[in-house]
Amino acid sequence: MTTRRSDWGPATMPHITETITIPASADAVFALVSDITNLPEWVEEFTAVSPDGDGWRADTVHGAVRLTVTVDKPSRVVDFRVDSPFGVHEAFTRVLPAGDEAEFLYTRLVKTADEARAETLRTTAGTRLQTLLDLVGAAAGG
For the purposes of burial, counting CB atoms within 10 Å of the CB of 12, is it exposed (0-12), middle (13-18) or buried (19 or more)? Predict the structure, then answer.
């Protein structure tokens, strides 16, 4: 897993970007990630996801949140916006073909100057990617 943190100064939102190579086709990984009902399987805070008007409702360990998801199948892009009592949280994902495998790119905006909190978010991102890798492996029978 590759971790890269970019912090370009006050004009740009600091963010955490992680990538992981998944031994499955980009289409298979995209199918799993773009099916929003799968979120509880790879995002540990989510316990259930259901349609809610023009968006989604996600039940989390911290209570219910509003989830807006943008899916672009041709580009294999899935972007998430979570509106919670704690603020707005955004994550941006891309699934890139890499031969017979896929590169999964996950970027999370970091809206804090607290380095300890940022490190927690980095660890959480890594856990999500590892869980996704394990989930795809289990789906493939591996």
Answer: exposed
Do 21 and 103 contact (CB within 8 A), yes or no?
yes
Do the Cβ atoms of 103 and 96 come closer than 8 Å? yes
pTM given for the model? 0.81
Q: Which domain holds residue 28?
A: 2-49+71-80+90-139
For residue range 14-67, list pLDDT tens digits in order. 778 889 999 999 999 999 999 999 999 988 889 999 999 999 999 998 899 999
Are 93 and 81 in contact by the 8 Å Cβ rule? The answer is: no
pLDDT at 131: 87
How many domains, the chain? 1
User: 136's torsion region: left (phi>0), alpha (psi -120 to 50) or beta?
Assistant: alpha
